[in-house]
Amino acid sequence: MKILLVDDSFITRQWIKDTLSPLGECDIAANGEEAILAYKLAFEAQKPYDLICMDLLMPVMDGNQALRAIRAVEQASRISAVHQVKVIMITACDDPKTRLDPTFLNGSTAFLVKPFTAEDLLQEIINLGLYQ
């Protein structure tokens, strides 16, 4: 599995990388702009990401903006919804009304609310069908 971890917190990126490295190759990005660049480079090299774990709130470009750009690349390339990269949006926002709002989810496949455990993250990946 090829994974992109996007978070402005070095500690969070490192913790997620340590958690997911046994599952596959993990690349990291510190903001949405870096995430879009990493996604495009992997896509152009025909080695796309299977999973992106992305923080919602980041400087430079937030997770929603980055995800919209990634989904636009997929749409322009006529990638079906089934074959789109799975995206787990990570947020500190724990308001149930906000979490269930489709505009909040903005094309993400799933979400996790901080703080979460390694088990929570792995269970979400299992739920997405990326790991057994």
TrEMBL record:
The lineage of its organism: Bacteria, Pseudomonadati, Thermodesulfobacteriota, Desulfuromonadia, Geobacterales. GO terms for biological process: phosphorelay signal transduction system. Signal peptide: none annotated. Coiled coil: none annotated. Gene3D superfamilies: 3.40.50.2300. The keyword tRNA-binding does not apply. Pfam families: Response_reg (PF00072). It comes from Geotalea daltonii (strain DSM 22248 / JCM 15807 / FRC-32). This is Response receiver CheY associated with MCPs of class 34H. The modification 4-aspartylphosphate is found at residue 55.
